[in-house]
Amino acid sequence: RGDVLARKRDRFRAGLASTRLRLLPCEGTYFQLVDYSTVSSMPEAEFSKWLTAELGVAAIPLSAFYDEPIEHGVVRFCFAKRDDT
Q1: Would 75 disulfide with which of 13, 23, 26, 59, CB 3.0-4.6 Å?
Q2: What is the spatial distance between Cα 30 and Cα 76, in angstroms, rounded to a whole number?
Q3: What does the alpha-carbon distance between residue 77 and residue 85 come to, in Å, rounded to a whole number?
Q4: Residues 4-47: tens digit of each pLDDT
Q5: Side by side, which strands form the sheet with 74-78?
Q6: What angle is formed at CA 66 by the lines to CA 53 and CA 85, rounded to 5 degrees?
């Protein structure tokens, strides 16, 4: 299972490597944190909604995991998907 997730992670990261998104370190998980501050100044929840509505890509705002809304300019993607997704 670890080999499959590592392959999916590496494929996901390679797909974003040429973008302005900053990929944060990712080990031992099937989520990739991405700093999007060089792409947009939208709040995390708004950026996540925009990604979903406009590009069909689901992201979770990092601020959703805090009791107090703290903006980091970071969203979370799950790469444990089928390759065609």
Answers
A1: 59
A2: 10
A3: 12
A4: 889 999 999 999 999 999 999 988 889 999 999 999 999 999 99
A5: 22-23, 31-35, 74-78, 60-61
A6: 35
